[in-house]
Design a protein that fits this description.
4-stranded antiparallel sheet, 22 strands, elongated, 423 residues, 6-stranded antiparallel barrel
């Protein structure tokens, strides 16, 4: 019976004992927890590269493209009619010829006959003119002997007859000259040294003064039209002249280098910028530079092919030389023409600059907004603010090496001290 009563009492107080035990354990854990050391988070600065500025001079080089065009192109037509009886061996597209060479010949028979007839007419007119001069002279002599002091009429003195004979003589002389020239015109003579561009006729074809025989172009030099912007044109250095202005100094002719790849080989020709076309293209707002290339069909000791009309080539034009400028990589200049300058405290300062010239690799800046030796941020940091601090790559590596060296030296000293104390 007592056992049953004890069991009931124990079962009644058991939850309380469990609760008291758990509370005691919690109190012990609470007052004996380990201390937590607070760590201060240190913001890590970005490491960036810089470029030091230096004032220098820069020779502008303008790149462009264009098509080779002839200086002079001529469509040859005959001045007389006839059948083509002979053509020159070079009378084919691409053939070279010199000034004065006979390009082709027409049948001369009809013009030889006309020439002989004009010679006869000229001889008869000359005879009549000489006879009338003699008659007029004799008439004046006779009148002076028979009618001294009295005026004579023009008809008595044979003046109208003499004027008619003179006019007929001049007409026959002109006809003879034309007949001789028409005979010479049966030979088509090259007006200059050049090359055949197109051929329209051949032997046996009958031609008239309106028939196109061939198209030729001169070969002493060719021209290249290169479009440039108005900003680029200002840096070419060509002088501007007005209509009534006489140039007082020699015209500056910038050098140009013409390049073309043929059969996997690069060939270069030298030219000069001689003029502009004087107008701005309304659709592209560009100005065309005209480059003159002398002797494009001479090898000049180089194994290069001749330039061809219509060939697409690239050109590099030497422009003016900019003084007191700063040249930096193009990627450094941000949008709206500003750069990020890093001061002596490694703080970033946003600086507006004047962009004078640029290409795919370089940017040329005016030195007015920058000082000699300024450091410009060259690493792209997408969210960097004005006044932010950065670590310079070279300086950060040097500091890290010094820190590592110092740490290694301190560690070696500590080891030696420890061994000495425990020996």
């Amino acid at each position: 019976m007592l056992n049953k009563i004890n069991q009931r009492i124990n079962s009644k107080w058991l939850p309380l004992w469990v609760l008291l035990l758990a509370s005691a354990i919690a109190i012990v854990i609470l007052f004996n927890k380990p201390s937590v050391k607070k760590r201060h988070h240190k913001r890590k600065l970005p490491i960036a590269e810089v470029v030091s500025t230096a004032q220098t001079q820069y020779a502008v080089e303008i790149n462009g493209y264009g098509t080779i065009e002839p200086k002079t192109i001529t469509t040859v037509v005959p001045r007389v009619s006839g059948s083509v009886v002979k053509v020159a061996p070079f009378f084919k597209p691409g053939g070279f010829f010199n000034k004065g060479d006979v390009l082709l010949e027409l049948d001369t028979l009809d013009y030889e006959v006309v020439l002989e007839g004009m010679k006869s007419e000229f001889a008869q007119a000359k005879l009549n003119y000489e006879q009338e001069k003699a008659r007029s002279k004799q008439a004046k002599l006779n009148w002076s002997k028979l009618n001294q002091g009295k005026p004579a009429s023009a008809l008595v003195l044979n003046v109208p007859q003499l004027e008619l004979a003179k006019a007929q003589f001049s007409s026959a002389q002109a006809k003879l000259k034309k007949a001789r020239k028409d005979l010479r015109r049966t030979k088509i003579i090259a007006p200059y040294s050049g090359r055949v561009l197109e051929q329209f006729v051949d032997i046996g074809q009958y031609v008239t003064p309106s028939t196109q025989l061939l198209r030729i172009f001169s070969t002493d030099y060719v021209e290249l039209r290169v479009p440039v912007t108005e900003e680029q044109y200002a840096l070419v250095g060509l002088p501007e002249y007005y209509r009534d202005e006489t140039p007082t100094k020699s015209i500056n002719q910038p050098k140009a280098f013409i390049e073309s790849n043929m059969a996997g080989k690069r060939h270069v020709w030298t030219g000069t910028v001689v003029r502009t076309e004087g107008t701005v293209d309304v659709s592209t707002r560009q100005i065309f530079l005209v480059i003159k290339i002398d002797n494009p069909y001479d090898t000049n000791g180089e194994n290069r092919p001749p330039l061809k009309i219509g060939q697409f080539v690239s050109a590099k034009v030497k422009g003016v030389t900019l003084e007191n400028v700063i040249v930096v990589p193009r990627s450094i200049v941000r949008e709206n023409n500003y750069v990020m300058v890093v001061d002596n405290q490694s703080m970033i300062k946003r600086t507006q600059v004047k962009l004078l010239w640029e290409n795919s690799q370089e940017a040329v800046l005016s030195a007015k907004a920058l000082d000699q030796g300024d450091r410009i941020l060259s690493t792209y940091l997408p969210f960097v603010a004005n006044g932010s601090k950065v670590k310079i790559k070279g300086e950060a590596m040097a500091k890290e090496q010094i820190k590592t060296k110092h740490s290694k030296g301190y560690s070696s000293v500590a080891k030696k001290t420890y061994k000495k104390d425990h020996s």
